[in-house]
Amino acid sequence: MRIWFDVLTPKQVMFFKDAVKSLQEKGHEVLCTSRDYREAVELARIKGLDLKLVGRHGGPERYGKLAASAERMRALADVISGFAPDAAVTFSSPEGARVAFGLGVRHIGFNDSPHAEAVAKLTVPLMSRLLCPWVIPYSSWTGFGISRKDISRYHALDPAAWLKDDNDDSSSSAHMVEPDKKEGNKTVVLIRLEESKASYIADKKLASTALVDAVVDELAQRADIVMLCRYSDQIEEAKARYGNSARIIESVVDGVSLIKSTDLFIGAGGTMSAEAALLGVPTISIAPVRYHVEDYLVRSGLVARTRNPGALAKLASRMLAGEKFRKAQKKRAERALASMENPTKKMLAAILLKQNNDHHKL
């Protein structure tokens, strides 16, 4: 078979890399496309995933997103018609969905974020099959125009795809940033800033500045605060605002390795918060929107949530001081991860389904 993956974000690099490797080892021809997007391109290089870059990220504004998407769709049409895949696999790529639909290619799509309505509207109705975590109700998707019979759920959160068998040796010390614990034997607090250019955040002008200010003011004197940004302009803004109190990581790093060396994780996004929670690191979500995966993590006691700056500062201090809490959190996370399946297996089964059906007909 020929399989096309459209890989747009760091999460998607992690989510798809094992499936790509498995398919290649089985003799299938795989093409992975992406766009000019700093974090995804650099992480793919670190993880050894070959990407063909087509197009660019459109930025935070509506016109920029529209123009970049239209340009990328046109360029992808040429690339993909030439490759002639038997299946397309995307994590709700708008351009991937439209090109697959236009060329009549079976599209296996993934999504764990129905709250990102713009992306869901542009992709979910065009999928041949949608796969998602079991914590998301079918009704969250059918409103976008897909039939319930075309939805499959797996008993896992997406990070289980790369955390279940965490034996990847590509995360060498050359690719990670070890927070400096030597100075005063400080604990390490890792802060992941929000996806500020995503439409569901940019359109509503949502920001977490006051929350991050509160954490930095509270903990800077007794913790090594490490800040992980998403964009070059976000890095520069963080350096200007927090450069004297926090360490701003300027290179793209292996998030799992970084999280493992952290005592407390504070996330304004989704994927790294789920990673940290499933690795047993005390985790606080300051995400600007509510979503099903986070609700599950909060219900399970794996994540605490607040959007109140004062409450956040107190909660962070309490978590750092609680040795018994941290040990209990580790055990809770191990149980949760052990109970989950590996989404990669469902992914491979969905991709190869048509081939298997064809074999049965012979």
Automatic annotation (TrEMBL):
Entry's transmembrane regions: none
Source organism superkingdom: Archaea
Coiled-coil annotated spans: none
Record-linked InterPro entries: DUF354 (IPR007152)
Annotated protein name in UniProt: Lipid-A-disaccharide synthase
Source species: Candidatus Nitrososphaera evergladensis SR1
